[in-house]
């Protein structure tokens, strides 16, 4: 039996890692760290730092790094993601079989929280198809939305109003949700808010939330949209990658 802990580690600030996450790391026999290519080396560097700082001397955990398969960029997005998840599950299963042939505890450090626009739970669900008997545990982490609202010092929702969490792709395709006063947008490849009529919309945007290079911009969308796009492009060029999120709200 493999006991797999998906451990939310927040958005980049080691101080956001919970005591439950520290305990789960130290209980693991094997910790798997994905590498996403040189352009995103910051992400594995952070995970390495957390392991160095949070694993105590009594921990027997082996830390093993692996190269994450690349997703096919074909037009069939959902099909490409499905195939990609299958490839990742195969890699996970092979690593577990190699390093824990008799079973044991595996820890995986998940950016943010495993429940919010992260596929680790779906991938873990495929492991039974790879011949693994797996018990899954989730250790929650601080999400980028929590850090965004904390850094901007705002509530996520307007008073007694709903919030919809969506992706940049769906915002472009479907526009503003008819029953939402606020829309939180994740996984935007850049500028999905340009597809909306900007009048009456206020935006709170953040990139690299929780990290030293964190960047924040807020204001009426009509006034700051161009600044956000320019800053985003400059930061991506500087660092080779970017993760950002934003909250839009209709204001009277």
UniProtKB/TrEMBL annotation:
GO MF: precorrin-6A synthase (deacetylating) activity
An example GO BP is: cobalamin biosynthetic process
InterPro entries xref list: 4pyrrol_Mease, 4pyrrol_Methylase_sf, 4pyrrole_Mease_sub1, 4pyrrole_Mease_sub2, CobF
Entry-linked Gene3D superfamilies: Cobalt-precorrin-4 Transmethylase, Domain 1 (3.40.1010.10), Methyltransferase, Cobalt-precorrin-4 Transmethylase, Domain 2 (3.30.950.10)
Q: Is Ligase among this UniProt entry's keywords? A: no
Q: Known SUPFAM superfamilies for this protein?
A: Tetrapyrrole methylase (SSF53790)
Q: What is this protein called?
A: Precorrin-6A synthase (Deacetylating)
Q: Is Transferase among this UniProt entry's keywords?
A: yes
Describe the location of the Tetrapyrrole methylase domain by residue ranges: 4-188
Task: Enumerate the UniProt keywords alphabetically.
Answer: Cobalamin biosynthesis, Methyltransferase, S-adenosyl-L-methionine, Transferase
Pathway, per UniProt?
Cofactor biosynthesis; adenosylcobalamin biosynthesis
